[in-house]
Write a structure and sequence with these properties.
Elements lengths: L9 E7 L2 E7 L9 E12 L2 E10 L3 E5 L10 E10 L2 E5 L3 E2 L3 E2 L2 E4 L2 E5 L5 E7 L14 E11 L10 E3 L3 E4 L10 E9 L9 E9 L15 E6 L7 E3 L3 E3 L5 E3 L4 E7 L6 E8 L8 E8 L1
Parallel strand pairs: 11-18
Antiparallel strand pairs: 1-2, 2-5, 3-4, 3-6, 6-7, 6-8, 6-9, 10-12, 12-16, 13-15, 13-17, 14-16, 17-18, 19-20, 20-21, 22-23, 23-24
């Protein structure tokens, strides 16, 4: 009779003799007579479709499969399905039980970002869900990822200059013991470029690519991109033009016909100020001064 035994299969990554393995563990029914387990490994080949990659029958409460770069590759979502039956009566088996899908590869956390042109730094974590293997004895163990940004613009516009800036162009993933969160992690900060342009909300993406990895598993693997939406913030402007007419940030208008060096603007909150130099440009006919120099800190 088909029954559910609450085997609760779970996939965890392990490094076994320098090779990346996935382990499917399940809880044996207790106290039950000795049972065998049929373990079926599969990968998501397209949305909603699975492809079988390995199966075995074992008395153990676990099963291993190797991430070999052929049957199982980085970027795959992997499942194990476990059925139990008593020895000698394989036709009397339990209901097959599925593990949750295990994504093997690089994850970005968060998977997408929505940020504002306010100069704030947003932390992006780069996480490997599989262990970093050392291909040779002399090699320093790490995977280096080259990061790049691309402006997606708006659908009506051609892509323009990058709308986001990263704190680093490369990150190194160094091996550490696998835990619930992953097997290696690095962080990078993302900031929206304050461009003083009212260009609406724009989309950008961050891409990562392994740099000449020694490990075969990492070759020809491109992690998923991170989508970043940058929200426009109106920025203040102040002006000093012609025979200096001045318009302040809050829209007040002044004239300053004097000759000399003046403080045009100073921030109360940070080390930022702008000086202007004005000089006689009216000659004998009129006493008029014009901007002839500017200095900004």
């Amino acid at each position: 009779k088909l029954t559910s035994l609450a085997l609760q299969p779970v996939i965890t990554p392990e490094l076994v003799q320098g090779r990346v393995q996935l382990k499917c563990s399940y809880s044996p029914p207790f106290p039950e007579p000795p049972v065998q387990y049929r373990v079926l490994w599969s990968r998501l080949s397209s949305p909603g479709k699975r492809e079988q990659v390995h199966h075995e029958t074992t008395p153990q409460s676990f099963s291993y499969v190797e991430m070999d770069g052929a049957n199982l590759r980085l970027g795959d979502t992997v499942f194990c399905t476990v059925t139990a039956f008593r020895r000698g009566t394989p036709e009397q088996q339990s209901l097959p039980e599925d593990s949750k899908g295990f994504y093997a590869g690089i994850k970005f956390l968060p998977e997408s970002l929505e940020i504002t042109e306010d100069g704030k730094e947003h932390v992006l974590t780069v996480l490997s869900t599989v262990p970093i293997a050392c291909p040779g004895q002399d090699d320093f163990c790490k995977i280096t990822l080259q990061l790049s940004t691309e402006d997606l613009g708006k659908s009506s516009q051609a892509p323009g200059p990058p709308d986001i800036a990263l704190s680093a162009c490369q990150v190194d993933l160094l091996p550490e013991p696998c835990s619930g969160s992953g097997c290696a992690a690095a962080t990078v900060t993302v900031t929206a470029v304050t461009d003083f342009a009212q260009d609406g909300n724009r989309g950008s993406r961050i891409s990562a690519e392994p740099v000449s990895p020694g490990d075969l598993l990492w070759r020809a693997y491109t992690p998923r991109d991170v989508k970043v939406t940058v929200r426009d913030l109106p920025t203040g402007n102040c002006y000093s033009f012609t025979d200096p007419h001045i318009i302040t940030f809050d829209g007040w208008r002044y004239d300053n016909y004097k000759i000399g060096t003046f403080l045009l603007c100073r921030s109360d909150s940070r080390a930022f100020e702008v000086h202007v130099r004005q000089w006689d440009c009216g000659g004998h006919r009129s006493a008029t001064a014009c901007n002839c120099g500017v200095a900004a800190q």
